[in-house]
Amino acid sequence: MGKWTRRAVLSAGVIGGTGLIVGVALRPGNPTEAAGHLVAGDGEHLLHVFLKISDDNRVTAILPHSEMGQGAQTALTQMLAEELDADWDQIDFEEAPAAPEYANYAFGRGYLFKGMDLPDLVAPSIDGLVLKIADSMGIQITGGSMSIRVTGQWGMRIAGAAVREMLVKTAATVWGVPASEIRAANSQLFHDASGRQAPYAEFAAAAAKTTPSATPKLKDPKSFSIIGQSKPRRDIPSKVDGSATFAMDVKRPGMVYAAVRRSPVFGGQLKRVDDSAARAIPGVIDVVTLSSAGSTDQEYPTGDFVAVVASSYWIAERGIKALDIDWDGLGNETVSSNGIFEQFDRDITAGIDREFDLETGDIAAGFASAKTVISADYTVPFLAHTCMEPLNATAEVSGNSAEVWVGCQNPLGFRQELAAALKMELDQVTLNNHFMGGGFGRRAITDNALQAAYIARAVGKPVQLVWSREEDVRQDFYRPAVQSRFKAGLDDNGKLVAWQNTYVDKHEPVEAPIIPYAAESFDIGHVSSPTHVPFGAWRSVDHSQHGFFTESFIDEVAHAAGQDPFAYRAELLKGKPRHLAVLKKAADEADWGRPLEPGRGRGISLQESFGSLVAQVVEVTISGGKPWVDRVVAVIDAGYAVSPDGISAQIESGIIYGLSAALYGDILIENGAVKQSNFHDYDAVRMHDAPVIQTHIINSGAELGGAGEPGTPGIAPALANAIFDATGRRIRALPIMNVDFGAPTEASPQLT
Question: Most buried residue, 14, 315, 360, 418, by most Cβ within 10 Å?
Fold first, then answer.
């Protein structure tokens, strides 16, 4: 299915006519029989698809989002518990099953209709429509920093408030008193006038027979007692004591193990395989090949691969290394990173079919009137995800059923793709999702699960597939390499009068190249320059590259204007008080302007992404021919911090992830294939070179923003700007490890 847009979604509801009406019966607040069967056991009452109450008065939040270390499941539970007035010590959570009833309708609700006060009459139909769309698209996604700001706001809070209303109304009927006289607190209901008191569980069965409101009254943030508190992460104890179950912990009776190889040139086809040496290894059970060559009856979404199945993973990996394989690169065997960037430069220069992101004012007049014109090109390389937990999946496939155990970011989507690939109905496929050791967008892609299913079907045994780190690095779906060309015009006073930017290839979010700074004219656009390297969403997606581009170049503009980088940014943000407050807070906390010793520098950045504002100040020391990041001061305004400790942890995580990319990340293409293979040549920040990170939170009261991704985009430009402050050298191409700090200082930006 193609990409859905806001316009397309709304049109579908209007044109379909009956879609809105059908939606009433499918409204997410309606606990269907199917949902109850999936999540409610004996002594448990499902009052909302997101909430059940047991006879012992324990409340369980049912969460349609995966846990990959980000703490989302704890924060989502806080949001539900707050509105329910639940006793925090008596609340649990569990991940929702990979089922249509748990499609992320709240994503659509929050995106399409956020800020709208939907009346009771309309809300059920709207909810039903977006649920049907989410179901049809297989959306049960954890990504885009959407869990808290969308599902939390439009799902968990609403579910908690709706169930609280249901319980109050039920108690009012039983007690024969007005509902307005009943209050809820700590999973109990009280009627103070009569002295009556009872736990939620006493009314749960009866309340479950009523229909929750889609538009319950939500609490004023001033009354929050759980939201805004740093509650202990519920997933941490099991991860510490080893009882947590990851997909690699799955064991099935008679299970065997598999390792795989795909074409080193992306999209290549299998020509020939000699497996005799592999089959001779003791413990090797079988060699499975999947080739699209000559196939007419099936598409293989995994691409061609060869798998060795053995009694242990290490034997399977030995078998893979013993294979003699010939691949056909289908014409991409000569592609290199140098050639790709030469292509980018040609396509930007030609500007063929350039599409506008933003066009305001008279750009030609702006440059004509400018006293100073500055221009620069920036580039970033391909990047891999390199999650700490290698990709893996376990599968059992019989003639008419399949069961898969995996850690993924889109359980329903995985289940739907498995059913399609195996030519089964959805109800014939079971998907068991688990904790993940990192995701960053990589675990939203189904290739490892599909491979496991294909192999299990071929050998007729349960199979656990584990990718080697080398396979993981060389068969990723990569953050794209990008080139971005800038030109800016300044008047006599250094005021920004013209901003022009052309870059290659656009993905999401659409607003990533847009800057918050004031200028008289803007001309921002992109050209298409496709490569054979597979694209995958990488932490912060397009913000990861555009944050580096735009915040580095605005720094260049500030220096061309002869002004302090912080002061210059602040002047351009006078019409945006929220942005200015975040920027100023970062500068204040970092003691901006304090003189630094020779060889040290300080840089600043401001990035708006995923509904949040993040400013960062980096202090760096140049020593031993390389930069050492001493300190990072980060300030985030995510509207309201649901879990302050969780937000701080995510900002720190995002900074380390982005810093690893800025310093070391470089996936090189040689002969059509990835050159790197493991952490020895695709490095990351280690404990010895990790900086001190100080995170500060502003609760502005704006709409909720994300936290998992907004920390990443701003670290590279802040570091690059700090290096300029220390050395006078501009970093316009990442990674920084490729810069020779012993060489003569690079020329200043081109001025005209």
Answer: 418
